[in-house]
């Protein structure tokens, strides 16, 4: 594959789905897109975040051969050493979790998997098995002194008891290991060098080195950061999940409420990455604007009260490897990442903050260290556990979305083969991309068994999948979304938790990714489906215009109905905002008479427009279905594109003072 080292004229965005080892699909898919497009905004979740980071690094290092290195990644991870692939050896458990991890991986990609798992459990917990078997062994020895039927029955009972005891012993040993997982950040592997690795590179340092190489950065140039990418017009975004707050969070985020413990982070990231973070605390506000002198003093006092904890860097200074690892924290397999913040919903912390504010006012020339010592009682910094981004948003297709797109935003979905589609040697037949407007409307179905343990486990699994993926699934069938999403199918032996995939399997998946990307390129720049050249992009732009305006049309009608409704015992909206509105405002003042007059005038223009639109159905006639509904949703906290003006927001954990 030849990838130009100069930037193509066309640009695109791409978002990729999580899927653990299914991520081997993405390198050649991205490289295929990069032959035609310059990658501007790149996002993903979990394994898709690794692909997004690699794609961003390769685009940054395009001139120095970044995409050549990215294309070689599938071959790199299938290289064998001592009968194990690089991919398999990247996941390294801690010493205490090693026996359970070996049992977990024993049957991967091998025949008689269940037997191998059982053997691995016995090997890993042999002393526990022996301890559990002792009562049965004692019975067997005692009964061996008997005669006739008593001898046979006694020995048989002793053997059965020994077997049951051994199973119980192994189960107790495994349960004890599981009990230590919570003290090891809720995972078997940290991503750093672990037990039994024999010097093989571990996941996080290996990825960090790959990102640096793809970006063309030397080892002494500092880690690749979001700011480094932004300097070349590349936006990178990925998803993580704050388990403590039950909140999906895109990274990098703008908030400055988080701190980290350097000693803990050094167990999860290379030392030079943590040293960089320690030496790059935020110097300006979350909106990029310098803080006022009093806000600087408040910030410095809180940092002093944090003790050994250090403030989380601003987005531009955040290393890409840190965000990537926080997105790839597959529950139980890879450890969660602990950060710290003050929970201002607790009265004690609000009291501590009020005391700090009062002390700063009373001591305008004192240092932050003096303040921390004088106050004594500091707010409590509670741990926030961050786990896999795919928990809540495995395919964040909403990333980089715009009412009217200026360039295509492609998405790559991963799904199991539907029951009526069988794997083909022709890779394009293992992918699906809607070509006509009426295609891609139907959600995939999962047929559940109705008897046996498998039926119950399938039912519970579908409950979890529905809870975590319903929003992504709803968007994927929307017009303006479905026409830019290519789905790549895989079977049970491919991707997922298959850490020990054979080289041929990885190559197949990588080629499938390239085939899927080629379909996207052909649809948006070529003649896929017999359409005129470039029809796919032209049609997608028009569909987004239709869906955006029909959503706006429906919203403005509902706005006008509410604006004109006179609710009992309330001030009418026209008296609050609109031409000549002068009623007292209950809160959130405009700040000046000039601003209120401007708001009144703009409200009048909006209601006049709504009155005009109410007489016509032109924007809704023939619009694509299902139709969108515009409604308020919380800001996701991600940093805004550089073209957007900064907006000052209040943290949800810190009420306005």
Shape: globular
**How many helix segments?**
22
Q: What low-confidence regions span 5 or more consecutive residues with pLDDT below 50?
A: 641-657
Helicity, as a percent range: 40-55%
Largest sheet, if any?
9 strands, mixed
Structural class of the secondary structure composition? alpha/beta
Give the termini distance in whole angstroms: 58 Å
What percentage of the residues does DSSP assign to strands (E)?
5-15%
Number of strands: 15
Average residue pLDDT:
89
Q: Mind telling me the C-alpha Rg?
A: 29 Å
Motif (DGA/G): 388-390
Domain PNPLA: 14-401
Transmembrane segments: 117-142, 148-175
Keywords: Hydrolase, Lipid degradation, Lipid metabolism, Membrane, Transmembrane, Transmembrane helix
Description:
- There is one protein chain.
- By secondary structure, the chain is α/β, with parallel strands linked by helices.
- Among the domains are: 95-183, no CATH class; 538-620, no CATH class.
- The protein is built from 22 helices and 15 strands.
- It has helices spanning 26-36, 47-60, 66-71, 73-78, 86-90, 98-106, 113-124, 126-143, 148-181, 203-215, 226-230, 262-265, 271-278, 293-305, 320-327, 347-362, 368-375, 452-476, 503-525, 535-564, 573-576, 593-613; strands at residues 10-16, 37-45, 80-81, 84-85, 187-189, 235-242, 247-251, 259-260, 310-311, 332-334, 337-342, 381-387, 409-416, 431-432, 485-490.
- The strands form four sheets. Strands 1, 2, 6, 7, 11, 12, 13, 14 and 15 form a nine-stranded mixed beta sheet that branches. Strands 3-4 form a two-stranded antiparallel sheet.
- A hairpin with a 2-residue loop joins β3 (80-81) and β4.
- The longest helix is centred in the first third of the chain and has 34 residues, at 148-181.
- The radius of gyration is 29 Å and the shape is globular.
- It starts with 9 loop residues before the first strand and ends in a 44-residue tail after the last helix.
- Residues 641-657 have low confidence and may be disordered.
- The chain crosses the membrane at residues 117-142, 148-175.
- It comes from Mycolicibacterium helvum.
